[in-house]
Amino acid sequence: MITERSRAAHCASAELLASRALEALKGAGGSTIVASLLQEAAGADGTTGATGLVTATGAVRLLGADALAPYVLTGQTPAPEEWAAVRLTLAALPPAAPPRGPEPPWIRAWIDWGLVTLLARLAPGTPQASPPMPSGPPHCDSTVPRHHSATRTPQGGSGEGWVPWALRMGQLASLALPGLDTPVHEAARSGAEALARGATRSLLRRDFVTAARVTRWLAWLAADNVALALDPALLVEDIALRGGGNRCLLDVEICHHMLGLEGV
Amino acid sequence: MSTALAQTAHDVGSRALHWLHAHRQAGALDGPDLAGDMKAYTALLETALAASLVLRDGASGGEQCALAHELLDFAWAQLKDGTLLYERLLRQPLATDAVEGYAHFARVGYRHTGMERLITHFAATGTARTVEYVPNRRLAIAIANALRVTGHDQGADDWERLTRATWLGSTPQPWHLDWMTGYAITHTVFHLTDGPTSGQRPASGTWWANC
Fold first, then answer.
1. In which domain, by residue range, is B14 found?
2. Are A229 and B205 a contacting pair at CB < 8 A?
3. Helix (H) or strand (E) holding B135
């Protein structure tokens, strides 16, 4: 059972990891992101240290590919222990095979897929075989009511209204990085307007965290030369000005890089 | 509009009209002039607007047109055949609500000689075009509504200029929209669809409309 206290500890650890990645993206970090988080967590005494390590491991899996985004976006090469640290988190909580069943494990599988794929691309000596890809998301259907849930996911059935569809894309935002192109990215291409709506809807409700996640896809699409209904640079700037929290700001900084606005 | 949707719209409109008609006495002015009962004054003008739209659309049956005429007769009588509107505008030249309200009646044939003369003067002085209102309200006064109905508007160029000044006409990035601006947009839509070029829409997209 996940207690409130455990949830808070995971969130704090994820925020810390995001701040490390943010520093790395801005060129102000150390030589590792994941390894330094694990070392710091393990450094505490006794039981606290062991619990902290487990929590930090979970945080890495929570951020998924985002933890490695600075290496993709800036071309920096980390110290060798970085890759060992990422492999440790994967060994401690092995990714399950892509599920066919209900949705949350399916989202989990995609986030894991992103992390494992980036590790394979970036780390020397990692087997290059791509991990099995989970199936794609349901398609966004502009003819159904906006809150409509897809009847069967992800294997087929009716399409989905743009509100839940855009929220799910937000949950998959760690895949929105240069060099990745999967059925999820294909869904983003065909749902550009729904993503613009989703980001706008979140901003209107001052939910900057969700807005930043959905905006990742818009920045990815802009970099892919897809025409957008809104100005992604202004959208990111709005979130940068009004949003907060390291994970949100990490999304902002990743968007800046994808839009060619780094250093803003 | 689909047939089912048109039927629903017709049913809702019809029920609303019957309700307004049945309860019209509750909207009577309390006192000899407008000063003491501005809420009832507003309600009378809104009632007149609703009834004038029934007649404008020409899609309503004989019974509905009769109800609409009775509602207009009632509201017009409450306003002492337009004299209360005339007195309000005479004393307060910037109280454009009197001109806007008068237009609801004038478009379906109710006229007040003094009011006509006053509005001509009001248009000639430039006051109507320069009252410091938000853009959608300006649209209400100058084009779609009051001055056009009474024959004092300045044509399509004005319509274009005023439309561009509204949020809907220029569609900036949508995420700063607030409640009042959303409300203003509904009014812009109303005035544009009530105007001389009601078939036209602002060029920019409104993909954000139900965010």
1. 1-78
2. yes
3. helix B135-142
Q: Does A234 touch chain B if contact means CB atoms closer than 8 Å?
A: yes
* pLDDT the model gives residue B160: 82
Q: How many CB atoms neighbour CB A46 within 10 A?
A: 7
**What 8-state DSSP symbol labels residue B145?**
S
Nearest to A197 among B173, B177, B211 (CB): B211
Q: Which ipTM score applies to this complex?
A: 0.78
Separation of alpha carbons A255 and B194, rounded Å: 44
Among partner residues A146, A193, A203, which is closest to B175 by beta-carbon distance? A203
User: A102 — phi, psi (to 5°)?
Assistant: -65, 165
Are both B13 and B108 inside the same structural domain?
no
Instruction: List, for residues A151-170, the tens digit of each pLDDT value.
Output: 655 555 678 999 999 999 99
What is the reported pLDDT for A154? 53
Write down which residue in B78, B111, B136 finishes a domain.
B78
B173–A193 CB contact, under 8 Å:
no
Q: State which of B78, B110, B141 marks the end of a domain.
A: B78
pLDDT tier for residue B198 given thresholds of 50, 70 and 90: low
- Cβ atoms within 10 Å, residue A81: 16
Q: Distance between CA atoms of A160 and A138, rounded to whole angstroms?
A: 7
Each residue's pLDDT tens digit, A46-66: 667 778 899 999 999 999 999
Annotated domain spans of chain A: 1-130, 135-264
**A245: phi > 0 → left, psi -120 to 50 → alpha, else beta; which?**
left
Task: Please confirm whether the linkage preceding A154 is cis (ω < 30° from 0).
Answer: yes
Q: Encode burial over B133-149: b for 16+ CB neighbours within 10 A, e otherwise.
A: eebbbbbbbbbbbbbbb
Q: Which residue of chain B comes nearest to A146, CA vs CA?
A: B210
B91 and B148 share one domain? yes
